[in-house]
Design a protein that fits this description.
This is Antitoxin. This protein is mostly helical and 57 residues long. It has one domain. The protein is built from three helices and no strands. It starts with a helix and ends in a 6-residue tail after the last helix.
Length: 57
């Protein structure tokens, strides 16, 4: 299995449960006391865009 296959599996799984992106971000924010909230928000936005079929940079 290469990275592309792994990314596609993640995309399929998150496409069926898009709330998991927010849930994961909330978990990280909770564990870091919001210290990296801006970075987590950017990562959540990028993940949502990727799952929706946008380009990943």
């Amino acid at each position: 299995m290469d990275f592309k296959d792994l990314a596609n599996k993640a995309k399929d799984a998150l496409g069926k449960n898009p709330n998991l992106i927010d849930k994961a971000g909330d978990f990280v924010d909770g564990k870091t006391d919001g210290k990296f909230a801006a970075q987590v928000d950017k990562a959540q936005d990028a993940a949502k865009k990727f799952v929706a079929g946008g380009e990943q940079k």
